[in-house]
Specification:
With about 425 residues, the protein is α+β, with helices and mostly antiparallel strands. About 50% of the residues lie in helices and about 10% in strands. The chain has one domain: Cytochrome P450 (Cytochrome p450, Orthogonal Bundle), CATH 1.10.630.10. The strands form 4 sheets. Strands 1-2-8-5-3 form a 5-stranded mixed beta sheet, with helices on both faces. Strands 4-12-9 form a 3-stranded antiparallel beta sheet. Strands 6-7 form a two-stranded antiparallel sheet. Helix 8 crosses helix 9 and helix 12 runs parallel beside helix 16.
C-alpha cells in the first residue's frame, strides 16, 4: 500500500510558494493539513516538509537521515563550501565536530566576545562623527576584524573591506538568485583561495598562531581516517568559524530591533544581570526569523506516524515554525524573555541553530559564541552608547533570507559612555 498517498497530504510544486514565504510556508501548510508532515516538490524534486518538536527529534536521528549531499548546490557553493563539517556523517562528522566544540567552548566564546566588544567600542567613535549609521552594514566590518583576530587569521588593513565583502556575501546572498548568487559564488571562490593561503602559511611555519588559537587547531587537526585535512578542507573550516561570526550581524540587528519594539525591554536589559541578558538573547533567537529551514536526506525507507519516508528522499525541517509552535511555547507570538528564566533545555522545541546534542548531532557548535556576541551587543546598546532611532521602515522583510528590517536599522549615535568594567559572561 502506498502510505504516502493515503496518509501524507500533498502540495503541488512548491518552489515559488516557498520562495514567497520562506519562514511561514511549511508551518502554514502543516496547519492547513492538520499534520506535521506533507509532501511536495521543490525544483521538481520530491521533498517532505516537517514542523514541530517531534519532527525535529526525528530529523536528528542519524540512523534515519544523512547530511552528505543533502544541501542544495546553491548553498554548498556559497554559504557552506565543499568539504566542510556540515556535509559529513558518522565518525567523520563526530571527529570534525569535536574539533569545532574545542574551539567554541566557554573560554573561546568569552575571548571572541572580548574581541567584539573592543572593536565595537572603537568603531562606535566614528559612528558618532558620521551622523546616521546603518547598523547592519557597520557591524560587518566590526565582526570581520574581531573574528579574524580571535581565529588567528592575519587581516592587513588594506584587505579589510575586501574580506568583509566576501564573508558577508556568503550568508547575505545565500538565498539569492541571479546576479547576486553569481557574485556570491565568485566571492566564495576568492575567500576559499585566501584562506587556503593562510592555512598553507601555518603549515609551512611562515605563520605561527598562538597555542590554542582556532587557526592552529584547524591546521593541525587529524580526521577520522588518521590524515590531516587538505588545505582546501581546512580553509573551509576556518571560514566556517569566521563567516558565522560575521553573520551574527543579523542577530545583533534583531537585538537592536527588540530593544526598540518591545516596551520596557531596554530598561530591563540595562538594569539586568548576565542571567537576564541570556534570557533576552535567547528570546531574540526564538522570536525573530533567521534562516527558515534545515535539510537532510533519508538513508533508507521508514514510516513515522503513518507517513512513508522513502529512501533518498529530501526532507526539510521548519526552524521558524518550530520555534513558534504553540505546543512548545505559551503565546508564541509574544516577545517574553522571561520564558527562558527556568533554564530548561528544549533540545527539539528550540532550534534556532539546530537541535539535539551538539556533540552528537549537526546542531551548530557556535551557539555559545552567538549568544555571547548578542549579550555583548545588548549591553553595549543599553549601557555604553546613547543613540536615537530616526524614522524608518523597521518592518521585517520575511521574503528575504536572512530576514532583516527593511531599513537595516539606522541609528544616530549621540555619545559613547565610559567603558564599564568587563565581567566574564561565560557561564
Amino acid at each position: 500500500m502506498n502510505t504516502t498517498a493515503s496518509k501524507t497530504p500533498s502540495y503541488p510544486e512548491a518552489t515559488l510558494a516557498l520562495a514567497a514565504e520562506p519562514y511561514d510556508f511549511i508551518s502554514r501548510q502543516c496547519s492547513r493539513f492538520g499534520t506535521d508532515v506533507f509532501a511536495t516538490r521543490l525544483l521538481l524534486r520530491k521533498t517532505l516538509c516537517m514542523t514541530g518538536p517531534d519532527a525535529a527529534r526525528l530529523f536528528y536521528d542519524d540512523s534515519k537521515f544523512r547530511r552528505a549531499g543533502a544541501a542544495p548546490g546553491a548553498l554548498t557553493k556559497t554559504l557552506l563550501g565543499r568539504g566542510g563539517v556540515q556535509g559529513l556523517d558518522g565518525e567523520s562528522h563526530r571527529r570534525r565536530k569535536a574539533m569545532f566544540l574545542s574551539m567554541t567552548d566557554d573560554g573561546h566564546a568569552a575571548a571572541m566576545a572580548a574581541c567584539f566588544h573592543a572593536r565595537l567600542h572603537h568603531d562606535a567613535g566614528s559612528w558618532s562623527r558620521a551622523g546616521e549609521v546603518t547598523l547592519y552594514g557597520a557591524l560587518h566590518e566590526v565582526l570581520c576584524r574581531a573574528a579574524c583576530e580571535w581565529v588567528g587569521v592575519p587581516l592587513p588593513e588594506e584587505e579589510v573591506g575586501l574580506r568583509t565583502r566576501q564573508l558577508t556575501s556568503l550568508f547575505d546572498h545565500a538565498g539569492s538568485r541571479g546576479p547576486k548568487h553569481i557574485l556570491a559564488r565568485w566571492r566564495r571562490w576568492r575567500a576559499d583561495r585566501w584562506m587556503e593561503r593562510v592555512v598553507q602559511s601555518v603549515r609551512s611555519g611562515e605563520l605561527v598562531p598562538p597555542q590554542g588559537a582556532p587557526l592552529r587547531i584547524i591546521a593541525e587537526h587529524v580526521d577520522a581516517d588518521g590524515a590531516p585535512m587538505t588545505d582546501h578542507e581546512a580553509a573551509v573550516e576556518a571560514l566556517n568559524l569566521v563567516r558565522p561570526v560575521v553573520a551574527v550581524s543579523v542577530y545583533v540587528v534583531f537585538v537592536a530591533l527588540a530593544l526598540e519594539e518591545h516596551a520596557g525591554c531596554r530598561e530591563r536589559v540595562r538594569a539586568g544581570d548576565d542571567a537576564q541578558l541570556e534570557c533576552f538573547a535567547q528570546e531574540v533567537r526564538r522570536y525573530y526569523p533567521f534562516f527558515p529551514c534545515l535539510v537532510a536526506e533519508t538513508r533508507d525507507r521508514f514510516e513515522w506516524r503513518g507517513h512513508e519516508f522513502p529512501a533518498g528522499r529530501r526532507v526539510l525541517l521548519d526552524v521558524y515554525g518550530t520555534n513558534h509552535d504553540p505546543r512548545v511555547w505559551d503565546d508564541p507570538e509574544a516577545f517574553r524573555p522571561e520564558r527562558f528564566a527556568d533554564g530548561r533545555e528544549r533540545p527539539f522545541g528550540f532550534i534556532p541553530q539546530g537541535g539535539g546534542d551538539p556533540a552528537l548531532t549537526h546542531r551548530c557548535p557556535g551557539e555559545r559564541i552567538a549568544l555571547e556576541l548578542m549579550k555583548t551587543a545588548a549591553a553595549f546598546l543599553t549601557r555604553e552608547i546613547e543613540y536615537t532611532v530616526p524614522q524608518q521602515d523597521l518592518r521585517v522583510n520575511r521574503r528575504r533570507m536572512p530576514a532583516l528590517p527593511a531599513s537595516r536599522f539606522h541609528l544616530n549615535v549621540l555619545r559613547l559612555n565610559p567603558v564599564p568594567p568587563r565581567q566574564n559572561s561565560a557561564p
